[in-house]
Amino acid sequence: MPLAPTALADRLGRWSSGRGPLYLQLAARLRRLVDQGELAPGTALPPDRSLAAALAVGRGTVVAAYEQLRTEGRIVRRQGSGTRVAGPARDRPRETTGAPVFLHLLERQDADVILLACAAPGAPPPVLLTAYERAVAQLAALTGDIGYHPSGHPRLRRAVADHYTRRGVPTAPEQLLVTNGGQQALSLLARAFVEPGGEVLVEAPTYPGALEAFRERSASLRTLPVGLDGFETAVRSPAHRPDLAYVVSTHHNPTGAVLPPLARRRLAVAAGAAGVPLIDDEVLAQLSFPGYGTPSPLAAYGATVITVGSLSKSVWSGLRVGWIRATEAIVDRLARLRAVHDLGGNLPAQLAAAELLPGLEQWCRDTAADRRARHDHLLAELARRLPQWRVRPVGGGQTLWVRLPHGDGDTFAQTALRHGVAVLPGSGLDASGASKDHVRLHFLASPDDLTEAVRRLAAAWRAYGGGRGGGAPAGAGVTARPYERSADRRNPVRRTG
Fold it and tell me: In what order do the strands lie in the sheet containing 322-325?
């Protein structure tokens, strides 16, 4: 079977963001994938028309790119047998990630492209620099410590424990494992709980990094609506009990939804009764807008809930400090798994994080008005330039979940990239395949960048609507508006209770 066109399109990354003819840019990126072994010898490539449709380009662009690689001897094209990477077929190496959310991070920095795909603060804030100054002073006085702490430095474990205790969830330091960010936390949990081929319950849509962590374990992903609605029924049969369940309960990525207290209680109690480990991803929980409270973690309603947290979204993504809150037995097991891979995290970063934690809630309150202003600015620009797009306001977090009126997010993302803006197509966030008509945008960029990004998106939408993507006719539009409950029952608007 040929490689799926959408899968290859994902692996191509930001292939068309450079300069020069499109066919040469496409050939250059394909050449790199072949030379790096990402496209192994014997791999069947998509047919011309299929790949052209996935990339939202004319068939001639793909034909010319393939022909360029054929003349170089990198691919073989034969009538009736299709296009293959040159060389005898062999066992392919284990695949690396093809998720766009990660591939965008691996691309070189490109000043000509506005990145609305990867949601994270754009620069370290002054409070982080102050925290590092204090951490350096502590390092200077440190003696009798070789710096290996697989469970995390005691000062940071205590600071995180106090953070949860202040939020109404009494926590001991022994219940905390410090990780290199939230992504490592998810990978460790997948390794600890998911057997190859085991089932994981996830929301549709959800954070794509979690999906990749579970797929890396060859998990079977079973989807439920946002909030894991229907969880009790899904775990009722012992024969179909999942290895793990994952939910983003507060400022859900990507929809922004917040699970109400009663639903939190029901979910936590049901998971405990069924014996299903339930991960509550709280990385975005502190990012409420003014006037929106931060609800209690799911762990407040069930002692068996496993909580994942991080400073990457609330402070800076370059501060690779996250954690797992769980029972002492689970933390001890995770520490043994973690020690094999990196012996422990960066000690200066952990000491800086320990300085930040006592003031984290205040820092997030101080920055909430600015986040809200950027959210409102992006919504206003979308309403002005792309009024046909359907998008609802949120009460916090970092992203907007946009439904396109026509076409699909994958091919539109390709068109947007050629207009100088990178967005995340919804298909990569939804294991059920039901969000292909969505894209995710973040609103953390400056107002000027958001304005320019929407201007480019509007130009891309006009081009997309007049081409093969099935988009709206150029210039058509109505008002951008919140989702209506009757129009999108899978992702109803939810607020904290």
Answer: 176-179, 322-325, 306-310, 278-281, 244-247, 199-203, 220-224
For residue 36, count CB atoms less than 10 angstroms from its CB and return exposed for 0-12, middle for 13-18, buried for 19 or more.
exposed
User: ∠ CA(142), CA(147), CA(338), 5° rounding?
Assistant: 155
Beta bridge partners of 115: 422
Q: Determine how many CB atoms are found less than 10 A away from the CB of residue 137.
A: 10
Question: Which phi and psi angles does 113 have, rounded to 5°?
Answer: -115, 130
Burial grade of 112 (CB within 10 A; 0-12, 13-18, 19 or more): exposed
- Integer Cα distance of 255 and 391 in angstroms: 10
Burial of 443-467, coded b for 16+ CB within 10 Å and e otherwise, reads: bbbeeebbbbbbbbbbbbbbbbbeb
> Whole-angstrom Cα distance, residue 369 to residue 414?
33
Query: Distance between CA 335 and CA 348 in Å, rounded?
Result: 19
Strand blocks (E) in 289-423: 306-310, 322-325, 399-403, 421-422
- In the three-class reduction of DSSP (H, G, I as helix; E, B as strand; rest coil), residue 46 is classed as coil
pTM for this structure?
0.85
Contacts of 164 (CB under 8 A, 6+ apart): 170, 171, 297, 299, 307, 325
* DSSP state letters, 258-320: ---HHHHHHHHHHHHHHT--EEEE-TTTT-BPTT---PPPGGGT-TT-EEEEESTTTT-TTS-
pLDDT, one tens digit per residue, over 97-148 is 667 666 666 667 776 899 998 888 888 999 999 999 999 998 888 888 888 8
Largest pairwise CA distance in the chain: 72
> Are 114 and 456 within 8 A, CB to CB?
yes
Q: How many CA atoms lie within 13 A of 41 on its CB side?
A: 7
Closest CA to 300 of 274, 280, 330, 284: 280
417 and 113 Cβ atoms separated by less than 8 Å = yes
Q: Indicate the SS3 state at residue 109.
A: coil
